[in-house]
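Before relying on records like the one below, remember that each one covers exactly one chain. Contacts with other chains, cofactors or solvent are not represented anywhere in the record.
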Amino acid sequence: MTWSPTFDAKDVVIQEDKRVFDGFFKMHRLTLSHACFERAPMTITREIFRRGNAVVVLLFDPIRESLVLIEQFRAGAVDAPGGPWLLELVAGMVEPGESIQEVAERETQEEAGITVKHLAPILGYLPSPGGMDEWIDLWYGFVDASLASGIHGLDSEHEDIRVLSLPAQEVFDLLDQGRLNNGAIIIGVQWLRIHYDRIVQEGVEVMRKSNET
């Protein structure tokens, strides 16, 4: 059986959308009514973070079979097991007028200090739809991991980012050990593991053609 949603956006009526906090994040209070499975429509009030669209990029070197990852401090992880310095994929928010590919290329340069070759989508998802409207587009791209080193990020955005290159198998081991603890890197690494042979072959061809031009 193929699943499809029982309802869609037309089955939601937003009665009020009020901004109640305007700081580093934006919080809105929504009053809305929505259809229910076996009862009349329900009216609720919920606070949600307005985050918008983000892009996450899985950076893979098919020649060295390595992933380029970043390590940075995350305030939301201060009380998390393992502490607030997380191993992550390169990511950034989509600003008005920008394409996903433009953001992926920009953030790879800003956060990892390297150029990405060949970008393609993996999937899109909602990381926390119970309280946030953020939509994440997860993409992958090929890079030369030998060029990935140092500390990066924008001072204007208070970024302090260490870039590192790890063998793919080592990253798979970290996943199995439960040491990858944010959704984007878990999803991206699982996807790479499932499609590994195909992505290596594709990447080797992309890098070969790139070196010929």
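The helical segments are 100-112, 168-176, 183-194, 196-212.
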